[in-house]
Amino acid sequence: MSITKCQFQNVRPSIRGFTLLEVLVAMVVLSVGLLGLAGLMASSLKNSHSAYMRTQATWLAYDALDRMRANRQVALASGYNLALGAASGGSGLAATDLSEWDTALTNTLTEGDGSIAVGAGGGVSIIVQWNDTRGTGGGATEQFRVDTQL
Fold this sequence. Notes:
Elements: H1 5-11, H2 18-70, H3 72-76, H4 93-108, E1 113-118, E2 123-131, H5 133-136, E3 141-149
Antiparallel strand pairs: 1-2, 2-3
Helix pairs in contact: 2-4
């Protein structure tokens, strides 16, 4: 049985526009995939920034601890004690160290602040605090705490 030109023309009009429909479905699937990829990229950037801030806070806490160990006698005599929100003051090496540390906190972290407390027996507690609104998205204040001995 042979197909004539006349029979083929009768079948063709029923499949007209089907390729256009396939292209539209493929565009919708591609668009959803690209939106998902953009969401993943935004989440990755947010988490990366939060991790960067935590890394900087860790570095700054250990920087303060190293400064205290270099001037151990003054640190044991509570010369490095500093409360959250308090300005560093005094004179000498401890005051210079605290001033430089406070400046580094302010310049490195968003709304950066820190506290140092030296207890009896040489126990040290250092808290570094910053605003992580970009990382958490909700205005949360994050803290990193180091407890150690001098």
